[in-house]
Amino acid sequence: MKETDREAVATAVQRVAGMLQRPDQLDKVEQYRRREARKKASVEARLKAAIQSQLDGVRTGLSQLHSALSDVKDIQRSLADVSQDWRQSINTIESLKDVKDAVVRHSQLAAAVENLKNIFSVPEIVRETRDLIEQGALLQAHRKLMDLECSRDGLLHEQYRMDSGNTRDMSLIHSYFGSTQALSDELAKQLWMVLQRCLGTVRRDPTLLVSVVRIIEREEKIDRRILDRKKQTGFVPPGRPKNWKEKMFTVLDRTVTTRIEGTQAGTRESDRMWLVRHLEIIRKYVLDDLIVAKNLMAQCFPPHYEMFSNLLRMYRQALSTRMQELAAEDLEANEIVSLLTWVLNTYTSAEMMGNAELVPEVDASNLEPLLSPNVVSALLDTYMSTLTSNIIAWLRKALETDRKDWVKETEPEADQDGYYQTTLPAIVFQMFEQNLQVASQISEDLKTKVLVLCLQQMNSFLSRYREEAQVYKEEHLRNRQHPHCYVQYMIAVINNCQTFKESVVSLKRKYLKSEGEAGVSLSQPSMDGLLDAIAKEGCGSLLEEVFLDLEQHLSELMTKKWLLGSNAVDIICVTVEDYFNDFAKIKKPYKKRMIAEAHRRVVVEYLRAVMQKRISFRSADERKEGAERMVREAEQLRFLFRKLASGSGEDVDGYCDTIIAVAEVIKLTDPSLLYLEVSTLVSKYPDIRDEHISALLAMRGDASRDMKQTIIETLEQGPAQASTDYVPIFKDIVVPSLNVAKLLK
């Protein structure tokens, strides 16, 4: 307490010190004293009020405790009185046992008297009930059955109450009413038969279906009443609860399953379209059944049965089970397509679950899928595997068929523009088109996968196509008389390459949303390159055919016979022109390249003849005559290839200018200017080599060995640089080493 007083004094000192920090505050000491006095009085008043309130509460609590103690003593005295009265009444209760037994016997006899009429009329009621069931009067039959069961159950209940252990009397009642359970089973059988045909019954006689529902509802009420009584007495009559409502849904479920499974009308062995027919029948049956269920059948059942929702669930489950069974079979590729198209598209379309007559009860967008994603994926994998094998086989067969056409004695067909072609591109892309159309029916993803597969197999097919074209050429070279239409079919092979290109572009444009979709565009450059290679090799094969015929005439160039007046170049021009009349059937992109290559090869062969030292001029006159002849023949060749290239925009002057440039070196009369002329030639054709210059000087016949050596060494010191657009021509001309050795002697 003293510690508290000291703390209070210290606190007061601090507050006074805070108030009197300046001299002018001394004038307010009286004011401060009055204010503190008011605060003190207020605090004391609040303390007194709080203490008084606590005291009042304690006083009230003590009063209530005294009252409670008094009540407890009163209850204790009452319980003692009750206990004493109960002990005194035990003997009285035991003396009433005979009265209790009499009451039980009276109750049994009253029940027997009440059911006496029914007991004696049981056989007659059984007969009447059976007749009513056979006549189809189900409601009346059920009423009589209920009377029989009520009598039986009443007697059994009274016997159970009196002596539940007396099995003899219980068995006697069971035996007497033995036909009742048989009648119940027979009536149930009739109800299930009506429910199995409910979709037809509701169209013909909806009242019969309503009667069945009413009977089931009665039985449900009886089941509920008996189960409630069981909680009180523990007694349950025989055959209860019947659970006919639950059995009704089981029967409907089994009926739906049987209806779905029973729609298969054939097998693969008897009908290749068995699955398509099976699925179409299912579609029609399910749609018709659900429309009837929604518009007619649902009206015959109480709302809480939710009959349409339950039927919809049953049909969906039955369909799912059936689709899984079909998916587990060893289906062919076309059957997998039919199944997936039906499951993924038809099922939710307006032709089935999305039908306007089922809206709004059925929302097709929220229906669960009939097949799980894993099953669908497995089917797609199987389909893609089978399709891959089929495409490979189809392409191989198509190529074999086309290959057989190549040896025919008749020319290939021409398109509307007159270009030779075979049916191979049309067959191949018709097959691709059919498979892509089928895949489009299933999903966009599958369509893209099939397109990728087709293009991949197309690449492999083109490699085989290339090999077959090469074999075709080699067989022809072994016997150039066979096949008779070799040139025409090789032209068709070349044109097919262009058709393939155009068809691939068309296919991708039609079946791809965007060029970069699924990376398909990446395969195009490699395919184009392969097609160009096949066409290039085909053009090379045709040119090889041309030059085989020109070989004899090319060998006459730069010989004595040629110098004396050979018509070899005339024949070469006529032969080339004749061949290119046939080559006019080649499509433009490849024809243009072929003219350029033919032009180049003719010039190369001409220059090769120059470099092979078939002739060595002995005089200036011979050199002049030979050079002029070379110029005339170069112009002759230029005219030919200008004629062939007319309209193609091809520059045909460059190659022939090479012959003229070589002729200028030969024609030169002053040997001292030879180095300058050769330098000019080398600057124009940087790929010309030493052996070419040596052979050219040897052909002139007037250059000494020292002059040759000097020219070559001088030219080697400053080799010419080729321009970016220069096309080499001398690099393909090989000078025989033996001839070069002789030339340098």
From TrEMBL:
Family in the record: Belongs to the SEC6 family.
Q: Which domain of life is it from?
A: Eukaryota
Name the encoding gene, please: EXOC3
Name listed for the protein in its UniProt record: Exocyst complex component 3 isoform X1
Under the heading InterPro entries, the entry gives:
EXOC3/Sec6 (IPR010326), EXOC3/Sec6_C (IPR042532)
Q: Which Pfam families is this protein grouped with?
A: Sec6
